Amino acid sequence: MFLYDFTQLTSSIHSSLVESFGEGALTTTIELAIAGVAYLIFFAVLGLFLVYLERKVCAFIQNRLGPMRVGPWGLLQTIADFIKLLMKELIYIKSADQFLFNVAPFIVITASFLAIGAIPFDKGLQVLDFDIGIFYVAAVSSLGVLGVLLAGWASNNKYSLIGAMRSGAQIVSYELSVGLSLMTIIVLAGTMQFSEIVAGQADLWFIFKGHIPAMIAFVIFLIAGTAETNRGPFDLAEAESELTAGFHTEYSGIKFALFFLAEYINMFIVASIATTVFLGGWMPLHIPGLEGFNHVMDFIPPVLWFFMKAFTVVFIMMWFKWTFPRLRIDQLLTLEWKYLLPLNLINIVLMAVVVLLGWHL
Amino acid sequence: MNVIFFYIIAAAILGFSILSVTSRKILRAATFLLFVLISTAALYFLLQVHFLAAVQLMVYAGGIAVLIIFSILLTSNVDFTFEKIDWKKQLFSGLLALGGAAITILTLLQFNFKALIQPQTVTPDIRSFGRAFLSYGDGGFVLPFEVITVLLLAAMVAAIMVAKKSKQ
Questions:
Q1: Looking at residue B63, what DSSP letter applies?
Q2: Model-level pTM?
Q3: How many helices (H) does chain B have, and how many strands (E)?
Q4: Any chain A CB within 8 A of the CB of B122?
Q5: Which of B38, B74, B126 sits opposite A132 (nearest CB)?
Q6: What are the tens digits of pLDDT across the range B69-92?
Q7: Residue B70 touches chain A, beta carbons under 8 Å
C-alpha cells in the first residue's frame, strides 16, 4: 500500500519514466515538473481549505455558524471567494515603485514554497531531504520578511511602511526564538535531517522523550511561530484598526491573494515543523511496552497522522488568534527579548544536561 | 543538466550584479543585490554544499540584505532617484571594471592549479562541520570560532551601549 510507504510510488514513477525516456535530462525535467505541479496544487487546495477552516473556527469560537450558504456546510465558499479575487482589477499606483511593488508578493510566496519542500508528509513524500533540513527551513523562511519590507516601502503609503517596519522588527526578533527552540530538540535528536528526526521518534515522540525541556521548547516554538507568521495576537503588521491593512493595503486582486495565501501556508509550515520536530511527524503514536496498542496505531496511514497533528496545531494557532487581544509593539518586543530569549537559552543548557546525563526517556 | 543549471545561475548572478550597480533607485539596487546573494546560494546548492548554501541564505540574504533594506527604509523616500551620471564617468568606470575582470580572469587561467589532496566527491555532512568547529586537534577550528564569538559579543555589547538612553 503506497499510503504507508510513498517510496514505492515515487520509485515506480521514476522507473516508468526511465523506461520511456531513458536515464537523462528529460526524465529529470519531467520529474521536476511533476513535483512542482503537485506542490502548486497542494498549495492552492491547502490555502483554500485553511481559509475555510479559519472562518469556521472563528465562528465556532464566537458561537456562530460561519459560512453555510455555498455548498454543503459552506465548503465551496472559499472557492467562490477565490474566483472573485481573481476577477478583481489589479490596481496600478502611479507614485509607487512598480517593479518592487510587483516583485514583493513573489518573494513572499517563493520563500514559503522553498520551505514547504523540505517537510516530510510521509515516508518518501518529501522533495528535499538535506542533512541540514531544519537549518535550511530556517534560512529560506527568513527570506519572506524581505518581501514584506519591499511591499511596504514600494507602496509609497505611510500605513504600509509602518506595517512593514513593525513586521520586520517582529520577524527578525522572533526568528531567534524559533531557531533556539528547534535547536533544543536538535540537541536531543542529534541530527538536523528531517527524515532522521522522524525516524528517531519511532518509539516515542520527542516532546515526551525530552519531557520538561522539550515541552518548554514546544510552547516557546508555538508562541514564536505564531509571531513569525504575523498572525493574531501578533498581527501588528496589519492591525486593521490602526493601519488599515498594513503592508498589503495597496494590493488588490491576485497580488493580494498571494500575500494572503502565503500567510496561511506559513501558518501550516510552522504547524508542520512543530509536528515533525516535536510530535513525531508522520510516526503513529507509539508507547513503549504496549505492543498491541502500537500495532493498532500502525493501521492508520502515516499521511493521516501527519495531517491530523498538523491541523491540531493549526487549530491551536487559530484559537490564539480569536481569543487573545493584540499586543502593543513594546509588549511584543519585551515578550521576546526579556522573557522568551533568556528562557530559551536556559532551556538549551537544561536539555544538554538532560541528554548528557541520559535523563531522557 | 548540471551544466545548464550552472549557466542559468551564472547568468542570473551576472545580470543581477550589473542591474544592481546601474539601477538609479537605491532600494531597487538593494533588491538586485539580494537576488545576487540568493543566486550565489543556488550555486552552492548545485555544488551540493548545503551547509554553505544555507549559511549564505541565512547570513547574507536573510541578515545583511534585511539590514541594508531596513536602513534604506528608514532613511529614503520612494520618489528619490540618483541623478544620471555623465557618459565620461560611465565610460571610465566601465573600462576600469572590464580591465579588472580581464586581469582576474587572465591570472586565474594562467595559474597552474595543483590538487594537494585527491579530489573527493563526498559531500561533507553537518556532523563533520560541527566537530571541526569545536575540535582543538589537527584541522580543528576552535580558536577562530571562539575569537569570532568574542568579537560578536563585543559588537553586541557596544551596540547596546550606543542604543541605551543616557540617564538625564
A1: I
A2: 0.86
A3: 7, 0
A4: no
A5: B126
A6: 888 887 876 667 777 777 888 888
A7: yes
